[in-house]
Amino acid sequence: MISIRQRKGIKTTEVSEDYAAQEENVKLENKLPSGCTSGRLWKILSFTIGGTVALCIGLLTSVYLATLHENDLWFSNIKEVEREISFRTECGLYYSYYKQMLQAPTLMQGFHGLMYDNKTESMRTINLLQRMNIYQEVFLSILYRVLPIQKYLEPVYFYIYTLFGLQAIYVTALYITSWLLSGTWLSGLLAAFWYVTNRIDTTRVEFTIPLRENWALPFFAIQIAAITYFLRPNLQPLSERLTLLAIFISTFLFSLTWQFNQFMMLMQALVLFILDSLDMLPAVKVTWLYGIQITGLLLVCVLQFLNSMILGSLLISFNLSVLIARKLQKNLKTGSFLNRLGKLLLHLFVVLCLTLFLNNIVKKILNLKSDEHIFKFLKAKFGFGATRDFDANLYLCEEAFGLLPFNTFERLSDTLLFYAYIFVLCITVIAALAVAFHNLSDSTNQQSMSKMGTCTIGLRPEAAYNLIHTILFGFLALSTMRMKYLWTSHMCVFASFGLCSPEIWELLLKLIHLYNPKRICIMRYSVPILILLYLCYKVYQIYAKRSAEEVHALLTSFGTDYVILEDSICHERRHRRGCRLRDLLDIANGHMMDGPGENDPDLKLAGHPRFCEEIKRNLPPYTAYFTRVFQNKTFHVYRLSRSK
After folding, report:
1. Is residue 427 left, alpha or beta, with left meaning phi > 0 and alpha meaning psi from -120 to 50?
2. Which positions, given as ranges, span the membrane (predicted)?
3. CA 17, CA 400: separation in Å to the nearest integer?
4. pLDDT tens profile 137-178
5. Hey, which of 11, 335, 431, 499 would disulfide with 339, CB 3.0 to 4.6 Å?
6. How far apart are CA 293 and CA 297, in angstroms?
7. Do the strands 4-7 and 454-457 form a parallel or antiparallel pair, or are they unpaired?
8. What CA–CA distance (Å, rounded) separates 280 from 269?
9. pTM > 0.90
């Protein structure tokens, strides 16, 4: 990845010494023809051991997470309905579509039920395959019907075991990426260990199994591993084609399984744009990757019945803009430092303007407004103006969409991951800055460079890609806690790669004047082994202020028969004032919030008490419209009267 080459004038003694050393090596090779054979055998043995360890560590991680889930819920000892209830909120919604497909008499009827669904949204019929990313549930239900496993495995177990099985693929992909970058499978083993020991911050699959990210992130990890291999120089044509196929398939599956796909791939496109602009990646390979992103997303668009949000995505507009701007600025990578810097700034401006222009044109043609709440959320989150939009405020007040808590770094430091990550990051950033400056400098003035003597630092394309990837996704995680799982898993890969990289240790030892080939070998193996030993030693509206008549009219308009009130929502204390669900509803309705604190001057006192509190008193205005049919410490269930 990183190499230092000093050029200060060539001495004849150095040439003769180098030639003598090379001649001696040739003589040794001629005398020991078996050396090459033993080297190949060692590579085969190392590859076999490393591959076996990768598979084992992936399977063990899968079993470990499944065991945590079982121990937490006693999943095998509870009733079927209780197992389904354990999939809370949107998780239960996704699982219900899998169950719906299994209960359909035929596959065609199952597809028809999803395409003409009138249960998810009251009084409306929607196409779920267009609206949501649920093709994975469809595929899994078909697989369960086809395979002869119905007698041995219940549908719910087939579902959760598939997700835990994907975790095995996820960890294996992280392992391989680190191995590809460092050249030793010990790096992959350390990455996997860090992933497991930091599981609180690297995954939440054991308690939110059906979430879309748990389907998508394994494919994202495969894609990163494939890109890492693809960016290696001097690949054989067949290897390159197979790698491109792997990138396309993983990109497509990642896009198909997660609603946030276009935003994650936009970050990835920015990584490619930065590195391509600084001449740190081969332009041809970057073009292939842009094309794969566009093609994969358009294929998902077709499967989702021409979903307009995909056609109007910033990713497609950005990638097309970059490719157009390249054609307009053919001499982007020539000239002096200031000349190239000016061209680069102009290129950035052209791409930005083209992206906004294309995106606005597409949205106007499609009359697309369904993603406005996302931009309102981003505008309010980064301090560009307040909003009273309910959806945007719901995101703003949700802890998962807040800033990354500081105690995350304390946990990551306990396993030494954060310290190792910062160490590797600092060294590779210095190398990247040196390479970027060198690439932007005038490369035609070789004579002055030879006379002055220079220290040239090289950064391999695959290492450069992973560096910018981890930086951009790090900023994303810092700003939005829910996205930390994209960063922390890659943090494990990047830190382990650096600790096992001979180039990293070579650069560091040369900087402190302790360079020795034997020391490099000692450091790249001893440090990760010591950390592994350390890790083994150390772990593991009905809640608003509305009258009974208003609430009854609202609910009956949706065809509701029963209403379930939850005390933990009605009396919520988890969020601060202004972010509780009841506060968001009060603000949206123009009412003052409960409790001490400031209110906006235009908010007014509500004309009615809070419905979820007042209904429990069984007063006549409420009993006329609602009859309590069930009650426990948490839930209160009421049947709506149809006579009013």
Report:
1. alpha
2. 44-66, 168-195, 215-231, 243-260, 296-324, 344-362, 416-437, 457-478, 485-505, 517-537
3. 62
4. 999 999 999 999 998 999 999 999 999 999 999 999 999 999
5. 335
6. 6
7. antiparallel
8. 14
9. no
Which amino acid is residue 459, in one-letter code? L
Altogether, the residues listed in the chain come to a count of 644
> Where are the extended beta strands (E) located within 402-480?
454-457
Q: Give CA–CA dist 181/535, Å, rounded.
A: 22
End-to-end CA distance of the chain: 75
Alpha carbon distance 257, 217 (integer Å) = 9
- SS3 state at 238: helix
Q: Quick check: 543 and 612 in contact, CB under 8 A?
A: yes
Q: How far apart are CA 587 and CA 390, in angstroms?
A: 9
Render the burial of 569-587: b for 16+ CB within 10 Å, e for the rest: ebeeeeeeebbbbbbbbbb
CA distance 592 to 602: 9
Q: What is the dihedral of CA 597, 600, 601, 605, to 10 degrees?
A: -70
**Cα dihedral 626, 632, 633, 639 in deg (nearest 10):** -20
- Please answer whether residues 178 and 188 qualify as being in contact, where contact means their C-beta atoms are separated by less than 8 angstroms: yes
Interstrand relation of 626-631 and 635-640 (parallel, antiparallel or unpaired): antiparallel
SS3 191: helix
